[in-house]
Amino acid sequence: MTGMDGFTDVLDYPMYVVTAAADGERAGCLVGFASQCSMDPPRFLVWISTANHTHRVAHRASHLAVHALRRDQKPLAELFGERTGDDTDKFAGLEWRPAEGGAPVLADACAWLVGRVLDRVDGGDHTGFLLAPVAQSPRPSTTPRLLRFSDVRDLEAGHPA
């Protein structure tokens, strides 16, 4: 056991799909490192692997969309987590629309947030994108069971982290 494995091994955090668009290019990936980080003003921080194709697009994007998935949406998580945008159009066949800054919003997500990128933080092998919310999905009528790390632990990343 190294680093903080003893701590992180007990966590079962929600998984998100983050999407970005810049210079006519779309990208998206599955992430597990994300959280609200301020209430006033509202802020959200999402971490994207530097090895990921989405990282290159997100680094040029003015806005990112963060999508929460339901537990029954593992196939969507597999698409965004196991495939790389280097050779796959992950949006082909999906219903989506461009939002602020062109950030792709997935129609089937149970909840989503679009945020303007305020800052980028070097976290080592991940970059943190600090977002100021500019749009969000309507509040769901019921609290969904979210897709969690334990649901996707068996996925093989399109790009090793």
From TrEMBL:
Record keywords: Oxidoreductase
Looking at the record's lineage, which domain of life comes first?
A: Bacteria
Q: Where in the numbering of this chain does the Flavin reductase like domain appear?
A: 11-156
**Pfam name, any one:** Flavin_Reduct
Query: What GO annotations for molecular function exist for this entry?
Result: FMN binding; riboflavin reductase (NADPH) activity
- InterPro entries of this UniProt entry? Flavin_Rdtase-like_dom, NADH-dep_flavin_reductase, Split_barrel_FMN-bd
Stored Gene3D superfamilies = Electron Transport, Fmn-binding Protein, Chain A
Oxidoreductase keyword on record? yes
- Residue intervals passing through the bilayer: none
Stored SUPFAM superfamilies: FMN-binding split barrel
Record keywords: Oxidoreductase included?
Answer: yes
What is this protein identified as?
Oxidoreductase
Organism placement in taxonomy: Bacteria, Bacillati, Actinomycetota, Actinomycetes, Kitasatosporales
